[in-house]
Specification:
Blueprint (H helix, E strand, L loop, with lengths): L1 H4 L18 H36 L4 E9 L8 H7 L6 H11 L2 H10 L6 H4 L4 H17 L9 H15 E5 L5 E8 L2 H59 L13 H34 L9 H5 L1 H24 L4 H90 L7 E5 L12 H26 L6 H8 L3 E6 L8 H9 L3 E2 L8 H7 L1 H4 L4 H19 L4 E6 L6 H14 L4 E5 L6 H6 L7 H6 L4 H4 L1 E2 L6 E3 L10 H5 L2 H13 L2 E5 L18 E7 L5 H9 L2 H5 L1 E9 L1 H4 L5 H6 L2 H5 L6
Parallel strand pairs: 5-13, 7-11, 7-12, 8-10, 8-11, 12-13
Antiparallel strand pairs: 1-3, 1-4, 2-3, 6-9, 9-10
Helix pairs in contact: 2-14, 3-13, 5-8, 5-9, 9-13, 10-13, 12-13, 19-20
Length: 774
């Protein structure tokens, strides 16, 4: 049962292969299988898409597209360069080209074309729409106006203009040609000449709009500059007057300007500041030397050195002597021991040398200290002088700041006034030049052929969309089709054998001899004979009435599987069950028993469905005794058995006098078990038709008397998770499962789900070679 729980049941493909390890051949086979299963819906949707495209092609009128090429010229002539600087023109970039495209698409250009070409009088722009959409719209709107008893009201001039503009904008297209400054202006119309005229009209309207906008911009700039120049002239004069008054008030005499040399106090401050920086550096250096030698003097290491000690001859000599004593001390101490008189004398001499070096370092430290104090005193003196100089220069500098501010303001006013005056003169002289950046490099001409609808393009798009939609719908149907359809599903998901796939049973009229034999040998009980209904008899004896059909061949496959299992272990008592009612388990049980009995075996068929005894109602509807009466001891077994004299099949019905609440207890009783054990000795096969697993638990109570079970699944109806859940909750049934029978299979549809060889197994021409039919 662990294997059963691992089946996921997703789709119709082979689920035991992981997607990441699937081979190319398997992927191709799965794709072919998917198309074979879903090809009706794929063909239907694809055909609908093609049909819609054909309807569109036949109902849509031909349209013609004309193209005009417009260049946004960025190479200005030399005579116009000064004008470009005046109005601020710059070479165009990609964003500016897109801006020009939006201007061409603007409503202003569109209205200019509509008015210039009088499109409000053209039926193509203000009339009803053509083609399929126009026909549908007209068909819908016509009854509306007819019911009102009036005709459609006439539109106003404004409404006609808006309608014409709307049609115009729909059929106009403007785009940039690659990465150039060339714009492609195209217009699509029902008339080739109209298309070319409107395309050229758009380009002309754009050029006129550019000329008008430049003229208006130049005129507005000229008027504004003239007013601004007067204001700047007055501001410049006031600024000059303020500079003169400030100099007179503060007694400032200009000696060449601030950039020409400046005041002596300013230079003095700069010099003192430089000297103070040098003095501070010298003080810091002297302080660092003093700190270093004081640190060395606190250490006990005699060979520590500073810069002056390295050049001091006394310290160098003492240090060399100390190192020699230290070497001898280590040698003697190692040879004679630390208490030897020579070692002690060396220690004393070494201590004296350390004191001598310390005294010498002290003298160097005193000289460092003297240098530091001198540098510090010089630094303090410079700081005092700088402070005094700064205090004296602050007043003068504050006054100069005010003067500089006034002079800068006056200079700015004069500069702006001169610049605006120059621009005003240039714009005044060049205001009337009819110059624009755009020019038509290719005028539109009437196209020789229609541009739309493009038959090949429409068909390709419709076919592509149809294929995509069809595969999407097919994939959706595949994902929700979680039912059993193939033997591979049974083997992969349930981990058991699929014994047979039985087609839908069709009632076959038996030959005359067989009919007479059937009537003469209807199942009879010891006592008064009770004949079966002929109609019912045909359904439950399909294998006898049509022995050469694929339906009968499927039961022979189940019989072979039972015989093979019987050679390994005892397999005389076979139970037939299913997940849900109406899956055909009773029909399978009866036909299976008839097939075995017709082959010469002693077989008894027992109706074990004590809640809903279908076989008893169909085979012996007027039976008065049966299984329950035999188990309770009211009648003998031989008195309750019916026999089919054609095949020799024995049948034990289930006669229910009232509804049973504990049918599972009856099937699990010792009386039932003893009856089955007795039947084992009398019959070659005992076939029991049990109730389904899902509604009742009766089947699970028979595990001690049944050798194996045949599980019936209705093809294309029973869901995967239902069977998994029922067999998963009944592991004792699954362990004794002989196999699964897929019942009521649609042979024509089955061809699309089984593989190539498996599908042809069910085809009529395959069986025809051996005299079989469906």
């Amino acid at each position: 049962m662990d294997k059963l729980s691992q089946g996921d049941g997703r789709g119709q493909f082979d689920q035991h292969n992981q997607f990441n390890s699937i081979s190319t051949k398997e992927l191709v086979d799965q794709l072919i299988g998917f198309v074979r299963r879903q090809y009706p819906i794929i063909v239907l949707i694809f055909a609908c898409a093609i049909a819609l495209s054909l309807v569109y092609l036949f109902t849509t009128p031909k349209q013609y597209a004309a193209h005009a090429m417009l260049l946004i010229d960025t190479t200005k002539s030399r005579v116009l360069q000064q004008q470009q600087q005046v109005i601020g023109d710059l070479p165009l970039d990609a964003a500016q080209v897109e801006t020009q495209i939006e201007i061409l698409k603007s409503e202003g250009i569109g209205l200019a074309v509509v008015k210039e070409m009088k499109l409000t009088e053209n039926p193509e722009f203000v009339g009803s729409q053509t083609g399929l959409i126009g026909a549908v719209f007209g068909f819908i709107s016509k009854p509306f106006w007819s019911d009102m008893g009036t005709s459609q009201p006439a539109a106003s001039e404004t409404a006609l203009t808006r309608r014409a503009l709307s049609r115009f904008q729909v059929h106009r297209d403007i785009k940039r040609v690659s990465r150039t400054y060339v714009l492609d202006i195209s217009y699509t119309s029902l008339n080739a000449g109209t298309a070319a005229t409107i395309a050229n009209g758009i380009a002309e309207a754009y050029i006129v709009d550019q000329l008008d906008s430049k003229f208006q911009a130049s005129r507005r700039a000229s008027n504004w500059l003239q007013e601004r120049i007067g204001e700047l002239r007055l501001q410049a004069m006031n600024a000059d007057r303020a500079v003169l008054e400030f100099k007179e008030q503060k007694n400032i005499v200009d000696m060449g300007g601030r950039n020409g040399g400046g005041l002596l106090s300013d230079q003095r401050v700069v010099d003192l500041n430089s000297q103070l920086a040098n003095a501070r550096a010298a003080t810091a250096e002297a302080k660092a030397r003093l700190d270093r030698i004081q640190f060395v003097m606190t250490q006990e290491i005699p060979d520590a050195a500073v810069a002056d000690s390295l050049s001091n001859g006394i310290i160098s000599q003492l240090r060399t002597q100390y190192l020699d004593y230290d070497r001898r001390y280590n040698l003697y101490a190692a040879r004679y021991g630390p208490t030897h008189l020579a070692v002690v004398n060396l220690q004393t001499q070494m201590a004296q040398l350390r004191r001598s070096m310390a005294d010498e370092l002290g003298r160097i430290a005193e000289s460092y200290k003297s240098n530091y104090e001198i540098s510090k005193a010089r630094e303090d003196s410079l700081e005092k002088s700088l402070s005094q100089q700064i205090s004296g220069a602050q007043v003068t500098n504050r006054e100069r700041l005010g003067l500089d501010e006034l002079e800068s303001r006056a200079k700015v006013y004069h500069s702006i006034h001169d610049s605006f005056l120059q621009r005003y003169m240039e714009i005044t002289q060049q205001q009337s030049l009819p110059v624009t950046e755009a020019r038509v490099i290719s005028s539109a001409t009437a196209p020789g052929g229609s541009s739309s609808p493009q038959v090949s393009r429409v068909l390709i798009i419709a076919g592509s969309l149809g294929l995509l939609l069809s595969f999407a719908v097919a994939a959706f149907r595949e994902s929700i089709d979680r039912v059993f359809r193939t033997t591979r599903q049974v083997e992969t998901i349930l981990k058991t054998n699929c014994l047979a796939v039985l087609p839908i049973a069709k009632r076959v009229i038996a030959p005359a001899s067989a009919s007479r034999g059937a009537k003469e040998s209807s199942p009879k009980r010891v006592g008064p004979a009770k004949e079966l209904s002929p109609d019912i008899q045909g359904l439950f004896r399909q294998v006898i009435n049509d022995p050469l059909s694929s339906f009968a061949e499927g039961f022979r496959a189940v019989k072979v599987a039972a015989d093979i299992s019987g050679s390994i272990k005892q397999n005389k008592v076979i139970g037939i069950t299913s997940s849900l009612p109406h899956e055909g388990k009773s029909t399978v049980a009866c036909n299976f028993a008839e097939l075995i009995a017709h082959g010469g075996n002693k077989v008894i068929l027992i109706d074990g469905d004590l809640r809903n005894p279908t076989l008893s109602r169909r085979l012996v509807s007027k039976a008065d005794v049966g299984l329950l009466q035999v188990i309770s001891g009211k009648v003998e077994l031989r008195d309750a058995i019916y026999t089919d004299e054609l095949t020799g099949l024995a049948f034990l019905p289930a006669v229910i006098e009232s509804r049973l609440a504990h049918s599972s207890e009856i099937l699990a009783s010792d009386a039932f078990r003893q009856m089955i054990e007795g039947l084992r000795k009398t019959y070659d096969y005992v076939i029991i038709d049990f109730p389904p697993l899902a509604p009742v638990v009766d089947v699970r109570a028979t595990i001690n008397v049944v050798d194996s079970y045949v599980f019936v699944i209705e093809w294309g109806r029973t869901r995967l998770n239902m069977v998994q859940r029922q067999l998963g909750t009944a592991p004792e049934i699954f362990d004794r499962l002989l196999g699964v029978v897929l019942n009521k299979a649609n042979v024509k549809v089955l061809d699309r789900y089984e593989d190539y060889y498996g599908s042809y197994y069910y085809k009529k021409n395959y069986y025809a070679r051996y005299g079989y039919t469906h």
